[in-house]
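Final report, Chapter 2: Outcomes

The project's central promise was a pipeline that accepts a single protein chain and returns its three-dimensional structure in a standardized token representation, suitable for archiving and comparison. That pipeline is now operational. To close this chapter, we reproduce one record exactly as it appears in the project archive, with the input sequence first and the structure output second.
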Amino acid sequence: MKAIVVSDETAGTAGMKLVDRPDPVPAGNDVLVEVHASGFTPGELSWPSTWTDRLDRDRTPSVPGHEVAGVVAALGYGTAGWSAGQRVFGLTDWTRDGTLAEFAVVEARNLAPLPGDVDFTVAASLPISGLTAWQGLFVHGRLEAGQSVLVHGVTGGVGSVVAQLAREAGAYVVGTGRSADREAAREFGANEFVDLENDEPADVGDVDLVFDVFGGDLGAWSARLVRAGGTLVTIAGPPEVRPADGRAVDFVVEADRGQLGEIVQRVRDGRLRTNIGAVASLDDAVAAFNPAERVKGKTIIRVRP
């Protein structure tokens, strides 16, 4: 099969290359997925799990990408609940070869059924952004109707989904970003927009929940905006500054079939749209991940036409 691999931790996306590799073989409780579309997060090239397995052994050259949409090609011994030809999507294991390939092995529990009216390209953009937003808001953030939410990077892959889910849940949404993002922020559900290049952040006031994707100085400022009893949720690692009278939660997204079902249903009925910035073939994937100009939104690799 064709696959994108990485071998040099210091090279970033420029170190990716397209190679021929043996087709993977599913073990027990595994599903072999014929990949139709794959999502990739550039930050994963800095994760230890990209370079080593669960026992900290080198596993390079490794196949990156952990979001998949495709068709069941085969089942490992004892694997139940799926059938060949079934459409699926999901979030793969961090420490195994990923989805920038023509085939990928995925634990059966990490997959969800993909309805026939949802395109593979759209489905591949959902697992990380959708599950991160869902778990941050409802599992860790305990969001309730009537609360206020500050969403950093509101037009990004995660932030845009956070804003839409929060707005649908009855929250008042304040989004942050660059000045050029103001209109898009409104389209994704933000009631207010804070231009971090020109606006005064202190004007935001206290909020019930902050969803932080950046950390650093912005995360520290965010912690001071959480009102008493509120929550700072972050995916940027343990926060350096915590709310004075509230909770701080940093988390790593996990696969969840039920939550994927909730997310894809919202796509089907028009309540949720993902922010796809570019779509490229597997042959053109390396160039797509190293664009000459900044691409707004998520880049999806369409492995099969």
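Archive annotation: The longest helix spans residues 127-140.
This record, like all others produced under the grant, will remain available to the consortium after the project formally closes.
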